[in-house]
Amino acid sequence: MTTTMIIRIDDFKKERVSQLAKREGKSVSTLLRELIDSYLRERDASLYIDDLWQRIGQRMKGTGIDSEDKIDQLIHEVRKDRRR
Fold first, then answer.
1. How many domains does the structure of the chain reveal?
2. pLDDT, position 8
3. Which of these, 13, 40, 42, 56, could form a disulfide with 9 (CB 3.0-4.6 Å)?
4. What is the number of H-type helices and E-type strands within the chain?
């Protein structure tokens, strides 16, 4: 679900944002949504952690580690190597 947000900025900034969005082939709304997403990712630890888990999961699937059994086996092997 989306909602509308109203912000107040001076005319100069509004024009600059419009120009930059146009150069990138985006609407002002899209550009601002991307900026807000970026801001939240940088400052909200839970979003950062969620993103990190997502990337870890994708990397693991790319290496064939895609089940709990394989993860448990990998953890066991790593711990075994560390004891040596």
1. 1
2. 96
3. 13
4. 4, 0
How far is 25 from 38, CA to CA, in rounded Å? 19
Domain range for 23: 11-83
- Identify the burial level of 77 via C-beta atoms within 10 angstroms of its C-beta, where 0-12 means exposed, 13-18 middle and 19 or more buried: exposed
- Interatomic CA distance for residues 22 and 28, integer angstroms: 8
pLDDT along the chain (84 residues), means of 10: 92 97 97 93 82 82 76 81 76
DSSP 55-79: HHHHHHHHTT--SHHHHHHHHHHHH
The torsion defined by the Cα of 58, 62, 64 and 70, in degrees rounded to 10, comes to -30
pTM listed for this prediction? 0.53
1, part of any domain:
no
Position of tokens 């993103």?
51
Q: Is 5 among the domain residues?
A: no
pLDDT for position 67: 75
